[in-house]
């Protein structure tokens, strides 16, 4: 059974930093595609960052240069380092995994990030 558990969200002032973590069980972070998505109130869920099994990364236009996605194999965890946070980064952030073998999609429960002025 695949489980993705996010943590690290919270309240931060604009310009500050947060690091989100997504601990995976039942799926390896180094051999599958892991992503972070976010959804703000009244908006559609959008892709924030992706890291493939080969280590390639891709970022949404609004976070490029500010956010960094990475994996830690020893902890089977995917990280999202968020710097220079803006008010518009406020959202629920979700961890997503796509199995390389089955192409099935898995989601975490989400963690709230709130950026204040």
Would you write up a description of this structure?
- The structure is a single chain.
- The protein is mainly β and 117 residues long.
- It contains no helices and eleven strands.
- The strands form two sheets. Strands 2, 4, 5, 6, 9, 10 and 11 form a seven-stranded mixed beta sheet that branches.
- A hairpin with a 6-residue loop joins strand 4 and strand 5.
- The radius of gyration is 13 Å and the shape is globular.
- The protein starts with a strand and ends with a strand.
- The model has no long low-confidence stretch (mean pLDDT 97).
Keywords for this entry:
mainly beta, single chain, globular, four-stranded antiparallel sheet, 117 residues
Give a brief description:
By secondary structure, the chain is mostly beta strands.
Mean pLDDT: 97
Low-confidence blocks of residues: none
Roughly what percent helix? Answer: under 10%
Strand content: over 45%
Sheet bearing the most strands, described? Answer: 7 strands, mixed
Shape: globular
How far apart are the first and last residues' alpha carbons, in Å? 41 Å
Helix tally? Answer: 0
**What is Rg?**
13 Å
What is the helix/strand order?
Answer: EEEEEEEEEEE
Strand count: 11
Structural class by sheet pairing and helices:
mainly beta
